[in-house]
Every structure is written in C-alpha cells, then in structure tokens.
UniProtKB/TrEMBL annotation:
GO terms for cellular component: membrane. It is a single-pass membrane protein. It is found in: Membrane. It comes from Mikania micrantha. Keywords: Heme, Iron, Membrane, Metal-binding, Monooxygenase, Oxidoreductase, Transmembrane, Transmembrane helix. The keyword Protease does not apply. Its cofactor is heme. PROSITE patterns: CYTOCHROME_P450. Gene3D superfamilies: Cytochrome P450. This is Cytochrome P450. Residues 1-70 are annotated as: Disordered.
Amino acid sequence: MSKDSKKIILTNQPSSSSSSSLGTPLPINNRFTPLSPFSSRPRSSTPISVRPPYSSRNNTNRGHQPPGRLGLPVIGQSIGLLRALKADRVEEWFQQRITNHGPVWKASLFGYPTVVLHGPTANKFIYTCDGNLLTNTQPPSISRILGSKNIIELSGNDHKRVRTALVSFLKLEVLKQYVAKVDQEVQHHLLTHWHGKHEVQVQPLIKILTFNIICSLVIGIERGPKRDKMLPLFQDMIEGVLSVPINLPFTQFRRGIKARKKLVPMILHLIREKKEALKEHNQQTDPHKDLITSLLSICDDHSSKTMSEEEIIDNIITVMVAGYDTTSVLLTFLVKLLANNKAVYSAIVKEQEETARSKAYEEALTWEDLVKMKYTWRVATEMLRINPPVNLSFRRAKQDIEYGGFIIPKGWQVLISASMTHMDDSIFKDPTMFDPTRFEKHAPSPPPFSFVAFGGGPRMCPGTELAKIETLVMMHRLVTRFTWELLKKDESFKRVPMPEFDHGLLVQLKSLKETMNAAI
C-alpha cells in the first residue's frame, strides 16, 4: 500500500523548555505555549489553563470554542470518520479539517462533542495530564463493550492501581520465562495452519495465533473447545468497539454488546475456578501462571485483594482484545512488507539465520535469542510508525480547559491521532518512505511524544514487551521456514477499526524444508 498521497504538513514539535510543564493542572497565570502546527516557532501567548465551569445562562462570558461544526446529534461526523478509516484515508480526513480550521477544532464523534488536537505537544498533554483536567472516559461503544472498569477508561489512583497490577505480570522480567511458551504456540500454529499449504490468507491465520497466545498467557486456557468458543465473540466485540453507539438489531454495536454478555460469564467462571485453586493450594500456586491468577494473587499493604471481580473481568477482556488484534495487524503488515521489499527481507533473513544456525530445528527460542534481533525490531517499529494499529486516543474534559486560545468545555471528548505526528514531515524526513534506520541506536531520536504507537508516559501500553516477543518469535519462524509471494500485489485494506485486508492478505507459500529436500 502506498502512502504517497498522505504527506502531513504539521510542524508541531514540543521543545524541552516548553513541554516540561505539562502533566499537572495549570492556573491561569501559569502559561504553557503549545507550538503552532504551521510554524516551528511557539506562539507568544497561547496557554493551557483551567477555567471554572460555565453556566448555560452566562454564555456571553464564555471563551471561544474551537472552530468546526458538530453536525447531527449522536451521529455528527462519526460516519465520515468511519468511512475515512475504512478507506485508509484518515490522515486526509484530519488534514482537510486542519487546513480549514487549524490544529484545534471541534466535531461530534461517536456520540459526544469532541475537540481534536494535533502534534507532539498535544500528544504529551493527552498522555501525561493528570485526572484533574482530563479523564480517560472513552466513547460509549468502547466503554460499553470493554467495560467501565477497564484500564483505558480509568484515571488517577484507579488507573495507577490497575496498571500496577497488570504490569506485575506483563513486565519484562516475568515475560522472559514465557518466550519458550510463545514459541511453542507459534510452531504448533505453523505446523497446523501453514505447512503443506500452497495458498494462505495471512491475516485470519495470524489472528488465530495471537488469540491462542493470549488465551494461554492471559487466561490460562490451553488448546481446545473453550478457545474455539471464545474466538468469534472477540471478533464481534472488536467490530463493535469503534462504532456508532446505536443499539439496534443488526448494528455492529449491538453485536458487540451481545458478544460481551456471552463472554463475561465464561471469564467469571474461570476467575472463580482459579480462586478455588489458590485456596486449595494455600496461595502456593505460581502467581505468574497466567494473568488471571496474577491479578487474583495481588494484595495491598493490608492483605486485601487489589482488584474486584468486575475489574478483573473488564481488564482481562481489554488485554485480550488489544493483544488479539494489534499484534496480528503488525505481523500481517510485516508479511506484506517482506514480500515487496527484498532488501529488508534479505537483511531480516540474514539476522534470523544467525540465530537458527546456533539451534536445532525445533529448539525453543530464548530471551537471549530475541535480544540479538535488533534489525528485525527496527523494521517492526518503522511499520508501527507508518501503520499504527491503534490510531485514535480519546479523553474527556473534567472541567473547562483553555488550550491554544480556545475553550474545551467540560464533558467534551478530546481526541488525538497517532498518524498525524507519525506522518509529519517536519518530524520524520520523507515520512511516506519506509526507513528502519530512523530507529537505529545512533540515529537522532524523534522529539518526545512524536512516536506514540504504544502510547506515552504513564499511558504507555503495558503489553508492549509481550507484543515484541510475539513479533520476533513469529518473524523468526516464518522467514526460516517459508518464502512467500503476494497473490494480489495491490491488495488494499480498511480500518474497522483495526486494519483489515480485503482478502486477508492472500499469499502463495513455499516451505523452505520442502524446497531443500527437492533440491537434494
């Protein structure tokens, strides 16, 4: 897929001096100057500040709302944005409105009036601002389907408490021991779904793989009918996560709600089974056996359980939805890239063959093996820059906020788009070009909060290291066992809300082992 038509003209970069004050509530006299999106120079007097809530009877005293229009109630511009996402033209959709209105503008999206912000300074404001200014309230479709207690929805102390609990399992020190388990899932998957096949649809198969890995590590369900029953429910939930929140028959939103209702009792049953197992073994069960067991084992300083059943359910669903779709999107784009870019393919094969030569054919990979795959991960990082799986991040104004000379009214959504900084040619030179050298150790680092594929600050995705492990293990096994060619050279994709290839990325597959045997 070419992104040649998607050059973004923003130049909104935070300087070290101006951006350091974000993240705490600012009084009127404490000015912060976001940079202009059309100039590298800061504005002279454009503060972020907090104003008292305005009365509906005192509108003459209100500050100016951002330019733009809200449109029809509930629907607003949601359908237009969804169409742009499905056509992979979201940068153009945003850029058109920046051209018309500037870097701060309003719309009505997914049921709420929304202020849209652009640039690294805006990203930092969103990702580091504390709960006094912004809450992490998501559009109704997200909160209704993932649950109101999920980590995406939480702010302040609740977010910190739940994040600490999740990170206790998802931190690198714990995940290192699961590299072999991930590798086992990958090898079984390739043997079952890829070997012996001449044509495969890559994206649906990789989704099955990431779902199986998540099931094993997160909820402790091994292969079998339980996994098979959950898979279609997750697919329906994901389609409903970013949809117009109209709860009518045959809508994506209704299907997502129904899928959640079926899934919750299944997860609750697992939670209670694992509770009993912990009691039976007098809390001696390995707390890192899976994420549910880990969350059930965490206590505070007073020996009280840190998370309720409702919180565990909502966050298990959130981790599974996120892990199922985001990593599969990255891997699918990498498969397409390696079919089209022979230089990158050859460099990755060279790196992976060095690891393969030191091990038996099916010998499990270790964390030490993955550490050596530096070029492969730089390629993956550059792919995340060009095609971030999660493009949109939402917050909700807890009180009236002045930003860039405009008022963000209390209760309104605030939205940023990752790709608008990822494709900014003032931050990343020739942004439509695929260039993994951008992320080399000695290359200049991009400005803070300009690369936000995994979020940023205290909102950094807690599953980043797991995604890295899955990606490196799968790429190693793919390039050392198969070669492939695209059967549809220009196969396009749409975002629904994650990128979905029109034909699942159809490839012609050749087994390297079979090719070697035939040559002998």
